[in-house]
């Protein structure tokens, strides 16, 4: 569920009860005028001003709790964002097989309508439709089963676990959404739990090695190679893997693949830059002066310091240690992405300021 683009309805009476710092008061004034979080972020970006996303996140959270924001989507968003260790009510449930679904209904769904007819027909021959009761655990994080699903009826949620065992709601699934494709195509362990939040009907493409192994190798090699390289890199990221599926698609669409050879310098310390990067394959050596300070690997992101903190000035040199593939996002698209994902913005901002603190400590030693 995305709250960032929703036009906010305000009840200003309880405002006097909420403690706000000066920055949050400014944000509140703009939020009331611009009517959505995304519009607020874009307003600040047009002025050339930075947004402190942690303050903005706390402001929206407090406004929601105090019932200043009246939209029902906001308390639902924060309620689902983190589930403490009460996940026991979710369980692996026995599914009931439903009669075969009509091809026309499935072919109209986003993933399937982009497929060649022979590919679509091949998948349909190896699929069945199932019904699951509410609170069924459809996919369990860490397992190695490879089935792929499309939600036909009902609602479901994708949850990732943190180190404390709490679940973060990464995305809400509605009819037409595809899930499980990462394990299906790349044979990787499941990266999240998928839970039925109501009674659901799903199209399940059941993975059978003798049928799909050769076919998948060909499909990935011919049609899906770059997309799955990018997805693989994003899923290795502690931060970007929290992106909902539609935002991942947006990131893939807006970003461009950049190849750099081993030993090649991507940018120099103190140079000007307006790009944000995600490592898809390979690794990047980060240097300040003559000192090596970090090696970034697949899934790591960098370049945010120049955009968040230093007015476009790079604080270090970035150099490829091996042949490396990057996803490059320009500043406009970077801030558009953050405008639509407040939680992600807060997390990336935290990384930026942690890196600033690390730089300050190094200069003192």
List descriptors.
five-stranded antiparallel sheet, 365 residues, Jelly Rolls, 39% helix, 18 strands, alpha+beta, 13 helices
Note down, in words, how this protein is organized:
This protein is of the alpha+beta class and 365 residues long. It has three domains: 13-83, no CATH class; 87-207, Jelly Rolls; 245-364, Jelly Rolls, CATH 2.60.120.10. Helices cover 39% and strands 23% of the residues. It has helices at 22-34, 37-47, 53-65, 73-81, 103-107, 110-113, 117-125, 181-186, 209-235, 245-254, 304-308, 331-339, 342-364, and strands spanning 82-83, 96-98, 127-132, 137-139, 148-153, 156-161, 167-173, 178-179, 193-196, 200-205, 256-260, 265-267, 275-281, 284-288, 291-296, 301-302, 317-320, 324-330. The chain has a five-stranded antiparallel beta sheet with strand order 1-7-6-9-4. Strands 2-3-10-5-8 form a five-stranded antiparallel beta sheet. Strands 11-18-13-16 form a four-stranded antiparallel beta sheet. Strand 14 and strand 15 (291-296) form a beta hairpin. Helix 1 crosses helix 2, helix 2 (37-47) runs antiparallel to helix 12 and helix 3 (53-65) crosses helix 13 (342-364). The termini are far apart. The mean pLDDT is 81.
């Amino acid at each position: 569920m995305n709250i960032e683009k929703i036009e906010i309805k305000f009840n200003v009476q309880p405002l006097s009860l909420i403690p706000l710092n000066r920055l949050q008061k400014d944000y509140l004034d703009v939020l009331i005028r611009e009517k959505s979080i995304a519009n607020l972020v874009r307003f600040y970006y047009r002025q050339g001003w930075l947004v402190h996303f942690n303050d903005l996140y706390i402001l929206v959270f407090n406004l929601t709790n105090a019932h200043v924001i009246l939209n029902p989507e906001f308390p639902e968003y924060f309620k689902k964002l983190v589930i403490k260790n009460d996940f026991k009510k979710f369980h692996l449930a026995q599914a009931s097989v439903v009669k075969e679904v009509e091809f026309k209904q499935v072919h109209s769904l986003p993933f399937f309508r982009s497929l060649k007819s022979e590919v679509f027909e091949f998948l349909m021959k190896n699929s069945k439709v199932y019904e699951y009761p509410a609170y069924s655990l459809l996919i369990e994080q860490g397992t190695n089963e490879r089935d792929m699903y499309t939600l036909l009826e009902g609602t479901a949620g994708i949850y990732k676990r943190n180190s404390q065992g709490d679940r973060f709601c990464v995305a809400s699934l509605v009819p037409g959404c595809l899930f499980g494709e990462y394990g299906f195509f790349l044979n990787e362990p499941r990266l999240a739990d998928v839970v039925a939040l109501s009674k659901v009907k799903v199209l399940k493409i059941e993975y059978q090695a003798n049928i799909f192994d050769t076919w998948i190798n060909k499909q990935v090699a011919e049609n899906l190679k770059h997309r799955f390289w990018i997805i693989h890199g994003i899923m290795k990221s502690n931060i970007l893997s929290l992106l909902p599926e539609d935002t991942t698609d947006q990131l893939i669409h807006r970003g461009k693949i950049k190849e750099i050879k081993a030993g090649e310098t991507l940018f120099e310390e103190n140079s000007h830059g307006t790009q944000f990067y995600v490592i898809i394959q390979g690794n990047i050596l980060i240097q300040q002066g003559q000192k090596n300070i970090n090696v970034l690997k697949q899934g790591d992101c960098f370049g945010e310091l120049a955009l968040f903190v230093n007015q476009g000035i790079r604080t270090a040199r970035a150099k490829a240690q091996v042949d490396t593939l990057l996803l490059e996002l320009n500043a406009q698209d970077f801030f558009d992405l953050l405008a639509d994902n407040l939680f992600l913005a807060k997390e990336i901002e935290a990384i930026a300021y942690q890196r600033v603190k690390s730089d300050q400590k190094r200069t003192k030693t």
